[in-house]
Design brief:
Elements: H1 2-8, H2 13-37, H3 42-80, H4 82-109, H5 111-118, H6 124-137, H7 140-156, H8 161-185, H9 187-211, H10 225-240, H11 243-255, H12 262-297, H13 301-328, H14 330-338, H15 345-358, H16 362-377, H17 382-406, H18 410-451
Helix pairs in contact: 2-8, 2-12, 3-4, 3-6, 3-7, 3-10, 3-11, 3-12, 4-7, 5-6, 6-9, 7-9, 8-9, 10-17, 11-17, 12-13, 12-15, 12-16, 13-16, 14-15, 15-18, 16-18, 17-18
Length: 452
């Protein structure tokens, strides 16, 4: 029995799954204090809205390249030349630091017009609060830029413990800001705690990277073949990777036109829904990714397909079960986690209804995590990017059209429809992609043999 589970579940999934579970439990604690201290108010709306822009720009400029290109390229380099691999890793980290510092400066300068774009439905006073919080949160992407580059390296080496501990410390920083700083500084105290949590997120990964033997040094070797390949893979991913954030940016803009607290309600419901997606989909997809990349390097199509099939079935059916459980317990879950204080009975009912609609997207969103990484393992970013854009258009367009009839429930309904379409096309196209890829490899090998 243990041997069967070991073959079915990728190594490291248990460690990463436990740390993600703890992180999301702390996320519920964080949301509990948000609800108790602020309730579904414009202050919490302002924090959630301000959070979007730094996160979006970070995902466009840094996380896009790391998620798609860094792991398969570093996996190949580590088999060929460790010294060259370390040089490559340092060049990526250096580029991440530079791009995030420039981005933070731009956010600080243009925070006022940016806030008007994010929350067009807010009055001038509320937009000014968004701009104030935005300037504070602009520091977080600098720490996240370094942390995610280091984190990708830890995943490549299959060191998942401290990789998984980083979001736990991040949430502790936000909770600390809410409990210790919010009574004195209001919602800006939460923003300060968020920046502190980002610093902890980076520090724990950096410490583990040093333990693994990695030596950090600023390196501007941006003309190497592997760095150029990273940029090549990164360009389409710069559009695709932040699509989810862009989707919820659009949802935030739509929510800002509804009754006060709608942004907070949508955010709370989304946070509940993302727990099983992360615990099941992201955990298994993350630990499977380097194994799929190694199968590509070793040119083993049978191993690639077997791993992908087993992981997909595990994610899909487990996430369906999680969706059913979440739907069944949605109202008591919201009441226990968020109820009381400034969070009223009507807030509980509205959040529970929104969460109920969001559960439709748990299996589709969780499964997309794996199939997208399967494409990345083959060093193809264009197909998942194109499909994520299609999903974005369907989700946002559908939500906008359905809002007059379904109010806030239109947002999770549109999100589910978009993710379902994206999943179907990914599943069809990954099979065609692997057939073409390995057929090409076989022809090249046969040609070499005939010449020999």
């Amino acid at each position: 029995m243990k041997q069967r589970l070991a073959k079915l579940i990728p190594a490291g999934s248990l460690v990463l799954g436990i740390t993600i579970l703890i992180s999301y439990l702390l996320g519920l604690v964080r949301d509990h204090y948000f609800a108790q201290v602020f309730g579904a108010t414009r202050a919490l709306d302002a924090y959630n809205a301000a959070f979007l822009i730094p996160d979006l720009l970070f995902n466009i400029l840094v996380a896009s390249g790391i998620a798609a290109a860094f792991i398969p390229i570093l996996t190949e380099l580590l088999k060929l030349d460790v010294k060259r691999a370390n040089k490559y890793a340092n060049s990526v980290i250096t580029a991440a630091i530079g791009s995030m510092i420039i981005t933070s400066i731009i956010i600080i300068i243009f925070a006022d017009p940016i806030s008007a774009l994010v929350v067009p439905g807010f009055n001038p006073e509320d937009r000014a609060l968004v701009a104030k919080i935005l300037r504070l949160l602009s520091l977080s992407p600098i720490f996240f830029g370094i942390s995610n580059a280091i984190g990708a390296m830890l995943v490549t080496k299959r060191r998942f413990l401290f990789y998984g501990l980083s979001p736990i410390l991040y949430n502790l920083g936000i909770i600390g800001g809410t409990i210790l700083l919010a009574p004195r500084f209001g919602i800006t105290g939460v923003a300060l705690g968020t920046v502190g949590g980002a610093l902890l997120h980076f520090a724990v990964r950096f410490w583990d990277a040093r333990r693994s033997g990695f030596i950090f040094s600023l390196n501007c070797s941006f003309r190497t073949a592997e760095f150029k390949q990273t940029l090549k893979l990164m360009l389409p991913k710069m559009l695709g990777h932040p699509i989810e954030l862009a989707t919820f940016w659009a949802f935030t803009a739509i929510s800002s036109t509804l009754v006060p607290g709608s942004v907070a309600v949508m955010s709370f419901a989304r946070n509940f829904e993302s727990v099983p997606v992360s615990l099941i989909g992201i955990t298994i997809a993350t630990t499977t990714f380097p194994i799929l990349a190694l199968a590509i390097v070793d040119r083993s199509i049978d191993r690639f397909r077997k791993i992908l099939k087993n992981s997909f079935l595990l994610i899909f059916f487990t996430s369906i079960a999680a969706a059913l459980v979440t739907f069944w317990i949605k109202e008591p879950l919201v009441r226990i986690a968020l109820g009381g204080g400034a969070f009223t009975t009507s807030d509980i009912a509205r959040t529970a209804a929104t969460l109920g609609m969001f559960t439709l997207a748990i299996p589709t969103e969780a499964s997309i995590q794996l199939l997208a990484r399967a494409f990345y393992a083959t060093k193809n970013t264009i197909i998942p990017v194109a499909l994520s854009v299609v999903g974005f258009v369907i989700a946002v367009g559908g939500a906008y059209l359905l809002v007059p009839r379904y109010d806030i429930l239109a947002l999770p309904l549109g999100f589910f429809i978009g993710s379902a379409v994206e999943l179907i096309f990914l599943a069809v196209l990954i099979s065609a992609r692997t057939r073409r890829l390995f057929s090409s490899v076989s022809k090249n090998e046969q040609s070499c043999y005939e010449r020999f």
